[in-house]
């Protein structure tokens, strides 16, 4: 469990590294197969970790040095490298700051920003055509499927994949915070995802 601290407290601590990540999302009127409402677009990044194409999922962002730039300016810089667009990020987009439990000496900052559907589509195009990290640290952009299909397809199957650090917990918290899904829908998705993981590991219980 990540220990939450304030943004202000984090900036006074010495000897820590800071990592900023952001969830970019927007409303959508599109329908899958012409009948299943997409409802919202949520972008997360497939990241190459430790110079390996390991396929872990995480939000756009990276390490920021508060002594050289603000957290938000650093995050905007990271976005430019990863998605090809320097998306403006403000303090009002900040959601949480935590002491990392998986990486001692690291403080993580999470942001959420709502954008227009047209802006998100432009960003997806730029991520392939302009981003300097495309094909290197970042393998590509994917949309989180905020819907349910038969046999656990859609969000449950997506959640059953592997995420970097606490990105999965951040996603679930953000879906609830932004009211993109109901608490019941989130609990259903998590339950089905865990069942899929157990089935893959050979443990039906």
TrEMBL record:
Major location category of this protein: nucleus
One Gene Ontology term, aspect cellular component: nucleolus
GO biological process: mRNA catabolic process; nucleotide metabolic process; sno(s)RNA catabolic process
Keywords: Nucleotide metabolism, Nucleus, RNA-binding
Cofactor(s) the protein requires to work: Co(2+)
UniProt-listed PROSITE patterns: NUDIX
Keyword Nucleus: yes
Matches recorded under InterPro entries: NUDIX_hydrolase-like_dom_sf (IPR015797), NUDIX_hydrolase_dom (IPR000086), NudT16 (IPR054754)
Domain of life, per lineage: Eukaryota
E.C. no: 3.6.1.64
Cellular compartments annotated: Nucleus, Nucleolus; Nucleus, Nucleoplasm
UniProt GO molecular function: 5'-(N(7)-methylguanosine 5'-triphospho)-[mRNA] hydrolase activity; IDP phosphatase activity; phosphodiesterase decapping endonuclease activity; snoRNA binding
Catalytic activity line of the entry: a 5'-end (N(7)-methyl 5'-triphosphoguanosine)-ribonucleoside in mRNA + H2O = N(7)-methyl-GDP + a 5'-end phospho-ribonucleoside in mRNA + 2 H(+); IDP + H2O = IMP + phosphate + H(+); dIDP + H2O = dIMP + phosphate + H(+)
Family: Belongs to the Nudix hydrolase family. NUDT16 subfamily.
Stated name of the protein: U8 snoRNA-decapping enzyme
């Amino acid at each position: 469990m990540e220990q939450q601290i304030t943004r202000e407290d984090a900036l006074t601590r010495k000897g820590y590294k800071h990592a900023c990540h952001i969830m970019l999302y927007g409303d959508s009127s599109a329908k899958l197969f012409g009948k299943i409402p997409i409802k919202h677009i949520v972008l997360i990044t497939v990241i190459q970790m430790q110079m390996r194409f390991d396929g872990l999922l995480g939000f756009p962002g990276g390490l920021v040095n508060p002594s050289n730039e603000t957290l938000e300016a650093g995050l905007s810089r990271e976005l430019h490298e990863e998605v090809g667009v320097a998306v403006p990020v403000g303090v009002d987009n900040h959601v949480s700051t935590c002491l990392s439990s998986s990486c001692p000496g690291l403080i993580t900052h999470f942001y959420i920003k709502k954008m227009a559907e047209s802006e998100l589509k432009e960003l997806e195009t730029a991520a392939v055509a302009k981003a300097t990290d495309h094909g290197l640290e970042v393998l590509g952009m994917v949309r989180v499927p905020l819907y349910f299909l038969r046999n656990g397809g859609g969000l449950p199957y997506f959640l059953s994949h592997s995420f970097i650090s606490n990105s999965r917990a951040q996603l679930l918290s953000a879906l609830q915070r932004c009211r993109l899904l109901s608490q019941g829908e989130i609990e259903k998705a998590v339950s089905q995802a865990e069942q899929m993981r157990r089935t893959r590991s050979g443990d039906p219980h």
